[in-house]
Amino acid sequence: MGAMPAVLVLALLAQAGPGSNVAPQEPPTSGQRGPEWVASYVADHDALLRVYDVPAWPRRYERMRAFGEGWLERMELLDREDRPLQERLDWLLLRDRIRRDLDLEALERRRFEEVQPFLGFADPLVTLVADLRLRKPAAAEEAARVLARAAEEIVKEREDLREAGTKAAPAVADRAARTCERLRRELEGWYRFHADSDPVFTWWVDAPYRKVRKALADQADFLRRDVGGLDPDDEDALVGDPIGRDALMRELAAERIAYSPEELVQIGERELAWCQERMREAAEEMGYGDDWRAALDHVKEDHVPPGEQPRLIVELAEEAVRFLDEHELVTIPPLARETWRIRMMTTEQQRFTPYFTGGEVISIAYPTREMEYEDKLMSLRGNNVHFSRATVHHELIPGHHLQGFMARRFLPHRRAFHSPFLVEGWALYWELLLWDLGFVDTPEGRLGMLFWRAHRAARIVFSMRYHLGEWTGEECVDFLVREAAREPRNARAEVRRSIAGGYPPLYQCAYLVGGLQLRALHDRLVGREGWSERRFHDAVLRQGPVPIAFVRAALSGEEPPLDGPGDWRFYPLD
Q1: What are phi and psi for residue 343, nearest 5 degrees?
Q2: Of 3, 114, 144, 370, which alpha carbon lies 20 to 30 A from 33's?
C-alpha cells in the first residue's frame, strides 16, 4: 500500500475516529515551530501505541503504517526552506524519526509473520483483548466459548507440532514463546477488568479462562524446549534475535552513518589492536614484559573492601570535576554538581549489568551478600579502583549526568530523537579526550582506561558479527574473554545485556563509534578552526541527544543531505 495523497489525507482528518486508518486530527501547520511538530507527532504516536500494543494483532501494523505515512505526506507540505537552521534540522530529524518508526513496525511485522505458524490459535484470543482496547463490550457466554475452544486448539497444536517433530531457530522459538507469555498477561488484565465488575461474566468465563492461562504457559515452555532446543530453566542461556544485514544498514542510515556493518567491524578491530599495543606498553612499565593480560590481572586485584566502594566513587567523581575545572574544558552548572546521587545494584541487576550505570543517579556494581563466592570475586575484580575511575566520569560529570542535565534544559523536544551515538558517544568521547590530556599518569591507571576503550572496541566487533548472523552468543562471550580480558561471568552478563536486555542492535557499537565521531568534529572545530575547548563542549551539550551528523550540521552550518547517510567519513579506513 502506498502513501495516501496529501489532499485525501487532509480531507479525511475531520472524520478520523478512534479506529480509522488515517493520520492524526491535528497535522503540523506552516505556522507551527519545530518543537510543536515534534510534540504533536510523539504524543499522537505514543497514544496510538498505548491502544494498539496487543501482541499478534495485525491491525496494529496497519494502523501504525497509515499513521506514519500520513505524517510523511504532511511533512512535505511544510515550508521548511525559509525557516532558521535549527528548525530545518528539526524537520529532518522528525522526518527521519517517522521513517524509522515505519521501518521498525515493518520489521516487527516480518518477525510476527515468522512466528505465526506457532500461533494458529491466537486470533480469537487477540480479538477478545483488542475489543477491550477499542471499548467494545464483552459477551460473557461468547467469551467463554472462545476461551474453551482456544484451550483445546492450543493443546492440539502442541500435539501436532510434537508429532511432526517441528523445529525452529532458537530466536524464532523464543519469540513465539514470548508472544504466548505476552498474550497470557494481556488476558489476565482483560479478565480482571470484567470479573471485577460483572458476576455473570465470572460465572461463564472463570473455568475456561484458567485453562487458557495454563495452556499458554505450557505452550511457551514447549516452544522453547521442544521446538527451539532451549532450556527454559537455564538462567544463563544467551538467547537473542539477530536482525540481519539489511536491517543493520537501515539502522545505520537512520543514524546518518556512512559505514557498512563490515566497515564498523574493521574500525572495532583496529581500535582493539591499538588498545592492546598500549596495554603492552603499560605492562612493560609494570614489569610484566608484553603480557598485558597478566598486568590487567594485577590491576584487578586493587579493589577496596566491601562497604568502601561508595566512598571511592565520590572521590573519583570529585577528581574528575577538579581536572575539568583546572583545564577549563566544559561549563558545569552548580546545580549539576549538587544533584547527583548514588545507589547500589541488586544481584539480579548485575546479572545484566556487571558494571556501573549512571546519570543523575549512579548505580554501583559491587558484591552483594546473595552472590556465590566466585561471583563476588569477579565483581570485586571487575570493579577495581582503576576500572572504576573511567566508569565514574563516564556516568557522572562530564558524562551522562551532565549530558542529561543539559538535555532537559536546552532544546528538550529533541529527546524524542534519542541517539545512542550521541548519548553513549559523548561519555565515551571524554574517555578518549581525557586520555589525550594525561588525566592519569600511572601505568595502572592507563590500563584501567585502556580496558574500557578495548571493551568498547570489542563491543563493535561482537555486536555487529552477532546481528550479521556470523557469531553465536557463546562465541561473543569467548571473544570478550580472549581479546578484552573480561571476567567470564562479566563477559556473559555483557553479552546477555547486548542481545537480550532490550537494547537496540546498534547500541553497543554506538559508544566508541559515537566517540570517534565527536573526536573528529573536535579535531575540526577546536584543532583547525580555533574554537576553545569549553565553547565546543558547551555547544555540543546544547544540541540535544540527536545523531551526531546533526550536531555537526548545527555547529558547522553544513546541513546533512535530505536522504541517506551522507558522506561524512569520520574514521579513515584507507
Answers
A1: -150, 165
A2: 3
Q: Report whether 204 contacts 143 (CB < 8 A).
A: yes
Q: 49: closest CA among 124, 108, 125, 119?
A: 108
- Phi and psi, residue 441, nearest 5°: -130, 15
What per-residue string of b and e applies to 455-491 under the rule 16 or more CB within 10 Å gives b? bbbbbbbbbbbbbbeebbbeebbbbbeebbbbbebbb
92-102 pLDDT, tens digit per residue, is 999 999 999 99
Beta bridge partners of 344: 364
Quick one: cell of 524? 575540526
Beta strand 341-344 with 361-364 is parallel
Q: How far apart are CA 169 and CA 437, in angstroms?
A: 49
For 117-155, the pLDDT digits (tens) are 999 999 999 999 999 999 998 899 999 999 999 999 999
Locate the domains of the chain by residue range.
6-115, 119-227, 259-417+427-505
Q: How many Cβ atoms from other residues are within 10 Å of residue 273's Cβ?
A: 13
Instruction: Please give the model's pTM, rounded to 2 decimal places.
Output: 0.88
